[in-house]
Amino acid sequence: MFEFLKNLDKRWIFLLMFLAVAIPVYVVGKTGKAFPEVPTMLSESTFQAVEELHEGDPVLLSFDFDPASEGELGPMATAFVKHCAEKKLKIFFMALWPVGPQMIDDVVRKVIDADFPHLVYGEDYVNLGYKPGYEGVIKVVITDLRELYTTDDKGTNIDEIPMMADIHSVQDFELVINVSAGYPGTKEWVLYAVTPFPDKVKLVAGCTGVQAPLLYPYIPEQLPGLLGAIKGAAEYEKLVIDKYGGEHPDPKYLEAKRRMGPQLVAHLLIILLIILANIIFVVEKRRERR
Questions:
Q1: Burial status of residue 200 (CB atoms within 10 A of its CB: 0-12, 13-18, 19 or more)
Q2: I need a surface site. Which of 138, 219, 235, 268 has the fewest CB within 10 A?
Q3: Is there a contact between 163 and 126 (Cβ–Cβ < 8 Å)?
Q4: Kind and range of the H or E element at 176?
């Protein structure tokens, strides 16, 4: 057995990894059940930041990601929009990434058009679209949003959009929610929006796994809430669905929890293989000393 494990063909490991991913995908898809999630303090604070808002409060959602990060960020973007819609907030979308407006349109179709058809474009939600300029956009809109945004994503004059009447800068929003895949993203929102106006701008965010450690130094003063990758999205989904999902929530609002299944099993397999490899290494060393 030891010799078999010592000389284990890599193709067995590839097969095990395939099964570790495929079986949970099949089981979760077949049964609709996912592994339980226990929200962390960061997910709770992110949820509470939205929960504390009142009906009609304006909230800005900046979708700074593209399809390459949809696997991690798509579910949390969906959960954010559902939460805001359930709270009857005024939702303003914008993007610092060129493909951001398409990601916004996708979530609007999935959540607002499908489950909140009574919401009226221009009165309850608006897509301001993408503006080039990276963090330069934040530096401008933090004090004068209309300097850059003269129309929405559809080309409608911003003065003709009812819900824009009282919005002149980012400081007019009760909360800024950023879904970030990198640069420009959450770090730039912290540096150029929250830091100059700590009493005016409140920011929570969701980001990719590799980005999360770089944002921890800003917690909690400049960034009171943060969802890290698909794990954070699954925890936030649980909080939203527990309160607003009803007895039979739509599967699209459980997507992060579903995706956590194969990730969890694959991670356990990797840990097991690492432990096994180290045991083989130690045994081999002891044999060499004899």
A1: middle
A2: 268
A3: yes
A4: strand 175-180
DSSP H stretches of helix in 216-254: 229-244
Question: Where do we find the tokens 């398409």?
Answer: 102
Query: Number of helices and strands (H, E) in the chain?
Result: 11, 6
> Which tokens is 234 given?
């699954």
CA dihedral over 128, 130, 133, 138, signed as positive or negative: positive
Please determine, for residue 6, whether its predicted confidence score (pLDDT) is greater than 90.
no
Indicate the burial class of 46 (C-beta count within 10 angstroms; 0-12, 13-18, 19 or more).
buried
Distances (CA, A) of 184 to 32, 35, 65, 81, 177: 36, 33, 9, 21, 14
pLDDT digits (tens, 9 = 90+) for 231-249: 999 999 999 999 998 888 8
pLDDT recorded at residue 11: 94
Geometric angle at alpha carbon 219, from 142 and 86, rounded to 5°: 65
Q: Is residue 32 scored above 80 in pLDDT?
A: no
pLDDT at 2: 77
**pLDDT tens, position by position, 57-75:** 999 999 999 999 999 999 9
Letter string b/e over residues 210-229, b meaning 16 or more CB atoms within 10 A of that residue's CB: ebbeebeebeeebbbbbbbb
Give residues with Cβ within 8 angstroms of 5, minimum separation 6.
276, 280
CA distance 235 to 40: 7
Q: What is the DSSP string of 152-170?
A: -TT--BGGG-GGGTT--SG
What does the CA dihedral 65, 71, 76, 77 come to, rounded to 10 degrees? Answer: 40
Sheet holding 125-130, edge to edge: 125-130, 90-95, 58-64, 175-180, 203-207, 225-228
* pTM of the shown model: 0.90
